[in-house]
Specification:
Order of helices and strands: HEEEHEHEHEEHEEHEHEHEHHHHHH
Number of strands: 12
Distance between the termini: 49 Å
Bound molecules: beta-L-rhamnopyranose, manganese (II) ion
Radius of gyration: 21 Å
Largest sheet: 8 strands, parallel
Low-confidence stretches: none
Strand order of the largest sheet: 1-4-5-6-8-10-11-12
């Protein structure tokens, strides 16, 4: 066990988790957006909040941006601000769901002028990547249809393939496309990228710089997500996660909150293929909104939950597991996994944090810091950032 612990500590020390800028703005339900005192008013303040999460966890050094929600005049200045705070800019998310013209589709639209506009938006995002040093262009396609017969499903795929090809052609060599899928919403009959298979088919057609992003909230209930993780790793196309927790729909709750065992099963497949290592290229991002809970502590809790699931996965006795599997020892093999899952890894993570000069409990350390009270006091005036701002 001590040997496992040592290896787990070394692996955990290298693990990083990317934070979404939109987690730090006001958000809510379809019915009401709840404001909170001290919430960031612009992308610069969002980065300051993200830097707090990194300061107490030591594991969250990058922040994803959403364009145009995080539009600024000078991206060089924003990147420099991030660097001053000890963080950097991560994935750039495009936005294809807020313009009236996109009602019937963006990259899939039957109207060539609308498709061109959607492609051009990605040129703008790629420019932001160049100015911020970001390497990941994340595309979540909200396109789809509500009624059978509304549009030609095949034609929509063909138009999508063509639009994506144009976006892909604009990438620099170090850039990647992260192509996200979602089984329903905002449209309810047929989404144009509803599942990992469709995303993968498009990525394979595009080329090696295109990879799939798996949002844990974007599957039908009961879907075996860890199987998808295994398969995408097997073919070298798992580019990133959007981590969150769902109960009913795309709930965007704190990852691992309702089903920590699912998060463990996912991380177990990751560790089994060594994809937790930074060289694997898998970007472990959060995609969450904190509607009723405070934002910075919500992100800290999320990072801690990913770390706990990873630590447990690293403690799985792989040799014993393989032996039991080869011997056909069904319950023995299952027991090896459950032993790791049942381990209290909080002391291990406290040790990891001590080795980085951090407090053992980042959540408590942030609460003690007085930062939350300070931003509530100081951030007065101006417009708080929110969904779409
Ligand atoms: C989508 C998807 C994307 C996110 C948007 C705002 O459901 O998860 O990742 O950018 O929401
Ligand atoms: Mn997502």
């Amino acid at each position: 066990m001590t040997e496992h612990r040592t290896r787990a500590l070394a692996a955990l020390a290298e693990q990083t988790i990317e934070l979404p800028s939109w987690a730090f703005g006001n958000s809510g339900t379809r019915f009401k957006v709840f404001g909170q005192p001290g919430v960031a008013r612009d992308p610069f303040e969002k980065l300051e909040d993200a830097a707090q999460v990194h300061r107490y966890t030591g594991a969250a050094p990058r922040v994803s941006l959403h364009i145009p929600w995080d539009l600024v005049d000078d991206y060089g200045k924003l990147a420099a601000h991030a660097a001053d705070l000890g963080v950097s800019i991560g994935a750039i998310n495009s936005n294809l769901f807020q313009d009236d013209e996109y009602k019937l589709g963006s990259l899939t639209s039957a109207d060539p002028a609308i498709r061109r506009r959607a492609v051009e938006h990605h040129a703008q995002c790629i420019e932001v990547m160049r100015q911020t040093g970001s390497t990941d262009l994340k595309i979540w396609l909200p396109d789809g249809t509500n009624y059978p017969g509304q549009d030609d499903l095949r034609a929509r795929q063909d138009r999508l393939a063509d639009s994506l090809q144009q976006v892909y052609a604009m990438l620099d060599p170090q850039h990647r496309i992260l192509l996200e899928y979602k089984f329903f919403e905002p449209y309810f009959y047929a989404m144009d990228i509803p599942d990992w298979g469709t995303s993968l088919v498009h990525c394979l057609a595009l080329g090696e710089q295109a990879t799939v992003v798996l949002d844990t909230g974007h599957h039908a209930p009961g879907t075996n997500i860890e199987f998808i993780v295994m398969q995408l790793l097997r073919v070298g196309r798992l580019g990133a996660f959007d981590f969150n927790s769902r109960n009913y729909a795309d709930d965007d709750l704190i990852v691992g909150s309702a089903d920590p065992f699912q998060l463990f099963r996912i991380m177990n497949e990751i560790v089994a293929q060594d994809a937790h290592r930074p060289e694997s290229g898998v970007n472990f991002m959060l995609d969450q909104c904190h509607n009723i809970e405070p934002k910075i502590p919500g992100q800290i809790r999320s990072v801690m939950n990913v770390q706990e699931a990873t630590a447990k996965a690293l403690l799985v006795d792989r040799a014993a597991l393989r032996e039991a599997q080869l011997a056909g020892d069904v319950l023995g093999a299952h027991g090896v996994l459950m032993d790791a899952y049942s381990t209290d890894v909080r002391p291990l993570l406290a040790e990891l944090r001590a080795s980085k000069g951090l407090a053992p409990d980042p959540y408590a350390a942030y609460a003690r810091s007085g930062h939350q009270e300070r931003i509530a006091r100081e951030r007065v005036g101006g417009q708080q950032a929110g969904w779409g701002a």
